[in-house]
Design goal:
Layout (H helix, E strand, L loop, with lengths): L1 H33 L3 E2 L1 H8 L3 H9 L2 E2 L6 E2 L4 E2 L5 E4 H12 L2
Antiparallel strand pairs: 1-5, 2-3, 4-5
Helix pairs in contact: 2-3
C-alpha cells in the first residue's frame, strides 16, 4: 500500500509546486501592472488568462451582457502604430459590469 501512495504523493507535490509557481507569476503580473496608467492588450490577456484576440474583440465588437443583452465595448485608445492602450480604470469598470451579474 505504501508503494502506491509514494508515487501519488510525489505527483501531488509536483502539482502543488506548479500551482505555487503559477500563483507567484500571477501575483507578480498583477502588482507590476496595477500601477500602470495604460495597459496593452497583452498585459490584459496575461492578467485575465485570455487571448489577445479576445481582448481585441471586446474592444472592436464588444461583449454581450448576459442580462440586458446589450453589447458593451471595452474602451481603448488606438496608437498611431495601430496598437491599443486601455486605462486601468476602464478595464476595472468593464470587468465590474460582467462580474456583478
Amino acid at each position: 500500500m505504501a508503494e502506491i501512495l509514494i508515487p501519488e504523493l510525489s505527483s501531488l507535490l509536483s502539482e502543488v509546486t506548479e500551482m505555487r509557481k503559477q500563483l507567484n507569476r500571477m501575483e507578480r503580473l498583477f502588482f507590476e501592472r496595477r500601477d500602470k496608467p495604460f495597459l496593452t492588450t497583452t498585459d490584459i490577456s496575461e492578467e485575465l488568462q485570455l487571448s489577445d484576440y479576445t481582448i481585441k474583440a471586446w474592444i472592436n465588437k464588444g461583449r454581450k451582457h448576459p442580462q440586458t443583452r446589450r453589447i458593451i465595448k471595452l474602451p481603448a485608445i488606438k496608437t498611431e502604430g495601430g496598437h491599443y492602450r486601455i486605462k486601468r480604470k476602464d478595464l476595472d469598470a468593464f470587468n465590474e459590469v460582467f462580474t456583478t451579474v
